[in-house]
Amino acid sequence: MKKLLLLFGVCLTSTCAWSQSFMHGAGATAFFEKYKDVESSTTSVGFTYSPRFNFVESESMSVSVGIPISLAFTGSGAYNSREGASESSKLGILINAPVIVNLNFGAGSSPDNENRVGGFIGGGGGFHWGASTDQLDQNGNVKNVGGTTFGYTGNAGVRFAIGDIGNTVEIKASYFKGVNENKMDLIGVGLIYNF
User: Where does the signal peptide begin and end (predicted)?
Assistant: First the structure.
């Protein structure tokens, strides 16, 4: 194993320039949140700001560390056409902030890459906070879920170059697995414009 890691390190240093680039993007995102022992899932829609720092770059790929911060909202409640929304209407909020190391290739992997199509794949860990809500568990009992969750995350996606100025549009999918008592699963999809 040590020989394999040494070989990987030598390959990185000999074929990649140790350059540093800051890149970022913003866009819309949707999350599907499911807690352990709870029957229903919650859908949230919001915004993502996705900064990243490329710490290794070559002509065709880069390795980056980023924190795609998302703020999303969800709502629930009954609607009465005569009286408007009922008193049980609720607005929920969630914040997702993982630290992710990505392998980027093709379009959008670095500011100088001229490819028209590219992608990325990576993983890491992070923080998730969701407003506490009462939901029915599998036995029909009310269970309070939400709050702070820490866990592991992975993401992958494709990027398409827009025009001749180096900007890209990114289609992204992510998965977050909570490891504390909440045991939450979070699936995310997003559309991000990278500057």
Answer: 1-19
Is residue 58 situated within a structural domain? no
Angle, alpha carbons 50-102-3 (nearest 5°): 160
The two structure tokens encoding residue 182: 């909440």
| 158-183 pLDDT, tens digit each | 999 998 777 999 999 999 999 987 77
Count of domains for the chain: 1
Q: What is the CA radius of gyration of the chain?
A: 20
pLDDT of residue 14: 46
Query: Cβ distance 30 to 189 under 8 Å?
Result: yes
Q: In CATH, what number is assigned to the domain containing residue 29?
A: 2.40.160
Q: How many CA atoms lie within 13 A of 131 on its CB side?
A: 15
Q: What is the DSSP letter of 38?
A: B
Q: Strand 42-57 and strand 21-34: pairing? A: antiparallel
Q: Confirm whether 43 is domain-assigned.
A: yes
Query: E-assigned strands of 58-89?
Result: 61-66, 69-76, 79-80, 84-85
Query: Which of 71-75, 90-94, 124-128, 139-143 is predicted most confidently?
Result: 124-128
- Give the separation between CA 189 and CA 21, rounded to whole angstroms: 25
The per-residue pLDDT for range 59-108, each reduced to its tens digit, is: 889 999 999 999 999 875 545 555 554 445 567 889 999 999 999 999 99
